Amino acid sequence: METKIIDGLALSKQIYDDLEKRIKKLKNIGITPGLAVILVGESSASQIYVRNKVKACEKIGIISRQENYQDNISESELLKHIYRLNKDNKINGILIQLPLPKHIDTHKVIEAIDHNKDVDGFNVLNAGLLMTGNPLFCPCTPYGIMKIINNENINIRGANAVIVGASNIVGKPIAMLLLQAGATVTICNSKTKDLESHTRKADILIVAVGKPKMINGSMIKPGSILIDVGINRSSENKICGDIDFTSVKSIAGSITPVPGGVGPMTIAMLLTNTVESAERLIKD
């Protein structure tokens, strides 16, 4: 079987083309979408992620404001900066680059963001709206995964969807989105017994655990759709996903590569959420 490689980068470019048109319409009536990105500390990985987000904003016409703080910033001081951005009419989206230093309560920081500017879709109110089927913002990675699946014309209704990884960032929200689209959903985690018995039944398999190549060809259903959210370093120090790409390539129907699959779509959906936030100003 020839496995189709899903090009997330190409799809993200299509989304950017559409966003540029929407941003132009907003600018014609005096509104320029604005995204504030807060980075605490000097993690090289976080710096790269933030740099990519800022570049993407600038490329399509979103105003990006990057605010960098030392990792010894107090929780109360960080919260003050968030409250300031909440009141800033030029900012439509606020993103906190995670992880935060251990002395800062991540939950408290996320909850401090105005839910109308929570473009990551992480705070409790937005998570609750997603749970009830009326999301204000979908978390960016699950949102991107759904765009990929829909763009591939994959029939979700009635499909067996298996998710490996139960995080609040990917696993749980993508489960909600797939349920709402009519899939039968199984969520697996690190304590799941006989993981293979679940993954082999999956028409759609989404893996987001951060373990290099943990899913191999013997664990999947022939012709299945594989969405690899992981980004890791292999023992050879090469970037790889949670799925062993080589061993599944001739078995799966299609797969997202790492890199070039889900990653570009996550950033594209962050910008989509920011533009949608700005567009709500017209409707309000």
TrEMBL record:
Picking any one GO biological process from the record gives: purine nucleotide biosynthetic process
* Entry EC number(s): 1.5.1.5, 3.5.4.9
Q: Which reaction does it catalyse?
A: (6R)-5,10-methenyltetrahydrofolate + H2O = (6R)-10-formyltetrahydrofolate + H(+); (6R)-5,10-methylene-5,6,7,8-tetrahydrofolate + NADP(+) = (6R)-5,10-methenyltetrahydrofolate + NADPH
Q: Which residues bind NADP(+)?
A: G165, A166, S167, I231
Query: Pfam families, per this entry?
Result: THF_DHG_CYH, THF_DHG_CYH_C
Pathway(s) where this gene product acts: One-carbon metabolism; tetrahydrofolate interconversion
Q: Which InterPro entries match?
A: Aminoacid_DH-like_N_sf, NAD(P)-bd_dom_sf, THF_DH/CycHdrlase, THF_DH/CycHdrlase_cat_dom, THF_DH/CycHdrlase_CS, THF_DH/CycHdrlase_NAD-bd_dom
Any one Gene Ontology cellular component term annotated for this protein: cytosol
Matches recorded under CDD domains: NAD_bind_m-THF_DH_Cyclohyd
Q: Which UniProt keywords apply?
A: Amino-acid biosynthesis, Histidine biosynthesis, Hydrolase, Methionine biosynthesis, Multifunctional enzyme, NADP, One-carbon metabolism, Oxidoreductase, Purine biosynthesis
- What are the Tetrahydrofolate dehydrogenase/cyclohydrolase NAD(P)-binding domain coordinates in residue numbering? 139-280
Q: Which residues form the Tetrahydrofolate dehydrogenase/cyclohydrolase catalytic domain?
A: 6-120
Q: Which GO terms describe its molecular function?
A: methenyltetrahydrofolate cyclohydrolase activity; methylenetetrahydrofolate dehydrogenase (NADP+) activity
Assembly information from the UniProt record: Homodimer.
Give the protein family.
Belongs to the tetrahydrofolate dehydrogenase/cyclohydrolase family.
Q: What is the recorded function of this protein according to its Swiss-Prot or TrEMBL entry?
A: Catalyzes the oxidation of 5,10-methylenetetrahydrofolate to 5,10-methenyltetrahydrofolate and then the hydrolysis of 5,10-methenyltetrahydrofolate to 10-formyltetrahydrofolate.
Question: What name goes with this protein?
Answer: Bifunctional protein FolD
What species was this sequence derived from? Candidatus Kinetoplastidibacterium stringomonadis TCC290E
Q: What is the lineage of its organism?
A: Bacteria, Pseudomonadati, Pseudomonadota, Betaproteobacteria, Candidatus Kinetoplastidibacterium
